[in-house]
Amino acid sequence: MGLNTAKGASMIVIDGLQLDLADIVAVADGEDVSLAPEALVRMAESRESAVATALRRPVYGRSTGVGANRTVSLAEAEGGDTHGLKLLRSHAVDAGKPLDRRTVRAMLAVRLSQLAAGASGINPAIAEALVALLNSGSVPEVREFGGIGTADLPALAGTALTMLGEREPLGGGKARALLEGWATADALPFISSSALTIAQAVLAHQELAVLLENAASVAALSFAAMSGNPEAFSPAVADAADSPAVADAARLFHGLVEGSGEPARIQDPYCLRTLPQIFGSQAEELAALGALLQRLATAGNENPLVHGSPAHGSNDVAHHGLFQMTNLARRVDALQLAVGAACATHLRRIDLLCEPAYTGGHPFLAEDGSGQSGVMMLEYVAAAAVGRIRSNAQPVSLQTVVLSLGAEEDASFASVAAAQLQSTADALVTVAAVELVCAARALRLQGRQPDEFASPRFRTVMRAALTLPSDVRDRDLRGDLEQAQRLVTARY
């Protein structure tokens, strides 16, 4: 994979070997794609191997039915030559709200990358049609309910029907046929993927990567506004940390709050003193999920898995269960738990910023002590968002279900986990923004200036925070919060 800037236009090149998570985001945001020539060669060889294997042994979905119909031979069944199209039509049902274009484009990018890995046995022309679909600016309409973490069958079957011109794309309009037909041998290989679930997790992961970095900087602003004791982040503490991620977080905060002034207390409340554990644990889980997603973006996990070499006559397939996204569900759960656990300290910092004993101001950072409410209601807004995050943190990986006449007796529900991770990211934006509004107001009321602090990042974030309105009278704070939400999602 790489960024091709030939002819003055950027384009993501899909090679089936590597696809950065940032590139998936770029495609989601509208970047065009192309297939590397070697990927087409790899897919052609995989198809040749699958054909050769099917001549000597049954191959699931290619010469048999699927699910509970896996014992049905397509060669003996009536209409076996049109089974692929029937499979796509029957599996294309989904329900609920249509997903946004950005999510669907990310799904198409992931699926293209997986096909380019060359383990599906699919016709390379289908991958080329997928490129054309992405670059056309049109996307299939995919709805929220359908996948259960064992391949996103409805989403990809619906994509196939859109490529065939049978289903209108998102937003309506006349469907454009990118393929003339769909061979039976290519139907299951195309839909046997959790590309939508992976794509949703990637988009949420990348948003959280920026958000958690900014949330740490906001916490440092709160720390400075409350004259925290930086001993909690000292090199000795970092050396004694129980994990490299916590040690890294201690060093991060040590640098951020350097020169923030004399500490007001010998020992701070947990919401300040345990910042390395809070943000280190989140960083650790974020990195683990990112590594897994990086692998899944180029993993040929189609069932059956086509392997061997046509050149050496070692053609074969392996029927397997790698499509069961158990690890993905578990990794998302772990990150959700880390983010959910951190929320108690987010709320406590917001609470203490409203406390005169910690900031030296009036209650709720109000203009005066005459009973004004100041930022009082922002704490309620943050608590409402935290309620959403904690609800999302209930482990999805404990769910299961038995389907298809008992042929499929478990499910990871990673699809639910990925959707909830996006919901968590959205809610965390509000929590971090509330803390930013409060920390910025406290620092402003104290007369603190960015140049007082040693850390370049601290100064940058504080300057951004001080662009928030300076008016501390009781007024409608929706605009302040919306501006803060933009600030905590920006890159610095």
Strand order of the largest sheet: 1-2-3
> Under the CATH scheme, which class of the largest domain?
Mainly Alpha
Share of helical residues: 40-55%
The count of β-strands is 7
Order of helices and strands, N to C?
Answer: EEHEHHEHHEHHHHHHHEEHHHHHH
How is the CATH topology of the largest domain named?
Fumarase C, Chain A, domain 2
Keywords: Lyase
Pfam families: Lyase_aromatic
InterPro entries: Aromatic_Lyase, L-Aspartase-like
Protein name: Histidine ammonia-lyase
Architecture overview:
The chain is mostly helical and 492 residues long. The protein has 2 domains: 36-192, Fumarase/aspartase (N-terminal domain) (Fumarase C, Chain B, domain 1, Orthogonal Bundle); 200-488, Fumarase C, Chain A, domain 2 (Up-down Bundle). Helices cover 53% and strands 5% of the residues. The chain is built from 18 helices and 7 strands. It has helices spanning 21-28, 37-54, 83-91, 101-116, 124-136, 153-163, 184-191, 195-225, 235-240, 244-256, 270-273, 275-296, 326-353, 356-359, 376-392, 414-445, 456-465, 478-488, and strands at residues 2-4, 11-14, 32-35, 95-98, 143-145, 305-307, 316-318. It has a 3-stranded mixed beta sheet with strand order 1-2-3. The protein has a two-stranded antiparallel ribbon with strand order 4-5. Strands 6-7 form a two-stranded antiparallel ribbon. α8 (195-225) runs parallel beside α13.
Secondary-structure blueprint:
Elements: E1 2-4, E2 11-14, H1 21-28, E3 32-35, H2 37-54, H3 83-91, E4 95-98, H4 101-116, H5 124-136, E5 143-145, H6 153-163, H7 184-191, H8 195-225, H9 235-240, H10 244-256, H11 270-273, H12 275-296, E6 305-307, E7 316-318, H13 326-353, H14 356-359, H15 376-392, H16 414-445, H17 456-465, H18 478-488
Parallel strand pairs: 2-3
Antiparallel strand pairs: 1-2, 4-5, 6-7
